[in-house]
Amino acid sequence: MSETLNQAVHEEHLRSIETLIEHYANAESLPAQVRDRAREMLIDTLACIFEGRGAAEVSAFERSLGSNEAGSFRFPGGPLLSSWSGASVSAMASTWSEACEGLPYAHGRPGLAIVSALLALAVERQSTLDDVLRSLTVGYEVGARCGGWLRIRPGMHVDGNWPGLGVAVAVSSLLHLTAEQTIIALNIAACQLPESLYLPIKTGTNARNTYLPHSALLGLMSAFSAQAGLTAPRRALIEYAQIHSCDSGLPVPAYDHSFIEDAYFKPFASARHVHYGVEAALKVRQKLNESIGDINKIVLKIYPEAATYAGNRDPQAMITGQFSLTLGVASALRFGHMNPEIYTPSLFFDHELRKLEQLVEIVVDNQLTNSSVRRAELSVDTKSAKYVEKIEYLKGDPASPLSQQELADKFFRYSQHRVARISAQKFIDELLANKAGLKFADLWNLLF
What we know:
Residues 25-237 form the MmgE/PrpD N-terminal domain. InterPro entries: MmgE/PrpD_sf, MmgE/PrpD_sf_1, MmgE/PrpD_sf_2, MmgE_PrpD, MmgE_PrpD_C, MmgE_PrpD_N. The chain has 448 residues and is α+β, with helices and mostly antiparallel strands. It has 20 helices and six strands. Strand 5 and strand 6 form a beta hairpin.
């Protein structure tokens, strides 16, 4: 039970979320910078969804749902799906290669399950792009706040927990429910938040990739239930926080703080902790002129949380590789990237890659214990020289954001096996064109 967050603070968290929902229910439009960020969130998440659909397991999951529960939505090259099946496939695919968005305040990725739940539903219901961006934004803001408030306990994973709360609010928005109905949907979801284990990542199994589909479906069910007239206790979130949250809830944000603008987008396919070593190794590789054969020692000094969550050595499965500091450094030195292709067997088990991975020593920067500061220092020794690179800020963070063109390029690369480049370009151009009243279904059809 959370003991450090007193009743007054819980009440303040709840008031902030309810005020936010009421604000969006009455607001006429999104601020321009928020709308732009929502579009970028949509582009980045769709890129990850298209890339993840190429995995054999995701493809089989999509075919199974399509053959059993046909609806009016489909992906390029895929079967017909219902809105709920489409949400399940999208959510599973979105995190498959771990190249997705994230938000430090929430310690998770509020947008993945939301975008996944909205896609098929927006096509099915002939919603406008404005409806989708607005729903994505209010859902993200609520999900972010819930992530900062309802901190999970050690050994748990966020994906199967609070993301469903953001989905409930986002879907309620797309259904044009009132603020009161939206709060009911939020509390319906809060009454049944599941707990999901971190264990699959430790054991190299990929059950973790079913967590976000669960969250998407919980949010959908909660919103439709509220629309149908079901009710829920108004203080369900406070009850959950008191019983299930750990003791590290974060300060209550202002209701009008824009968390979607605080999100980061990833240039690499791995946990964010791994990116520090990857960026440092890429800089060393440039100095080496890609000549890595003489390397005889590699030391990565990094903040404690990274070593805790991404300390997997000699990973034998894709999901443990995504949380491996040593593999990230080795991949950047060996191949000059950590793209999703690194997880194909020919690269993942490359002999030279594995030799480099064994050389990497992880040293915890104890000065950063109990600190929110993140940084890394990589030193690489060869027979004739020593190279040292320090990384304090990552590409893709709000302080060093990916441009819209860089996000579009990521979309083109990640969707290239299922979407023709000319179709992908038309989709991006139309998405960024600010056309009033554009139907999301018309935008989606440009991909075919």
